[in-house]
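Fresh eyes needed here. I'd like your take on this protein's tokenised backbone:
***
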Amino acid sequence: MERKVKAVQYGCGKMSVYLMRYLMEKGADLVAAFDMNPAVIGKDIGEIIGDGKTYNVKVSDAKDFDAMLKELKPDVCVVATRSTMADIKESFEICARNGVNAISTCEEAVYPQNSSPAITKELDELAKQNNCTLTGVGYPEMYWGVLISTLASSMQTITKIEGSSNYNVEDYGIALAEGHGAGFSLDKFEKEIGICNDWSSDEIKEKVESGEYVPSYMWNQNGWLCSKFGLTITSQTQKCIPITYDKDLKSDTLGVTVKAGDAIGMRAIVTTTTAEEITLETENIGKIYTPEDYDVNDWTFHGEPDTSIVVNKPATVELTCSNLVSRIPALINATPGYVTTDKFPEGEYLVRPMNEYVK
């Protein structure tokens, strides 16, 4: 592509601080930004980014999103709002109806086929009708997905893959923190989140796909990995275990102090068995961090040879945003539809402006 990639930002919260700057640093022409929060509507995006610059692009009201897409006709829309397909469905629909490629930080969007199949099918058909592509990316796609599949290619045999990732729910907003049970009493946690612990594979599959129960991010990530490897899933279950702290713990995101003994987050453990006799046992540990906590990404391959990798203190927010930006050329180059990144070419570092990577 000879001209710059024309981009718009939908959602001007914490993630957009990096997303908008990274887009422009990689050569995109950021022509509009949208939000529904009255506190940010009308602000120049430089105030959101916080770099002291004026870009002459003001945050528009989300109610004008559809009309402005029709007028602007961008190459890509970056959606950074919430964490489930139900949450981002409307914004993806508007993009697809206007023939605009869309890419989201929504964790479920990385592989929604095994959690929201009806929504994914609907969006896939709409995107194909209008010749555009939709997908989800971020830190999980790279550090729980591409990194793992790349390392697996060096193994002779694999019998089991174990993965564990810690992150601070304070970094990602209220919806994510509450989705991890942060601030819940243990009784409330068990009733609203831990109810899945005794469900069979068939029971949880039915409840997840119907939208009755929202699984953890590793539910989708195991689906991504199995698709990437060509594995046939025979069962998948999840257990959610509350994490507590023995002292009161302040949450700036929730705006409360969580009492000692209440949940500050959870461990969500997803176990996937396959016909090829490779088991995946992965967990995400999301909680309000105590002074001793930090992000860790820890994976072990059992087989020949046993192999482990640990990434200590990854900058998960920044890596989510930079990974998304680097995936934009592949998104634009992809076939129309809802295309998950296990079907994309391997990622690459954008040395040149992103338009030079667009066919």
Q: What stands out?
A: The CA atoms of residues 168 and 287 lie 5 Å apart.
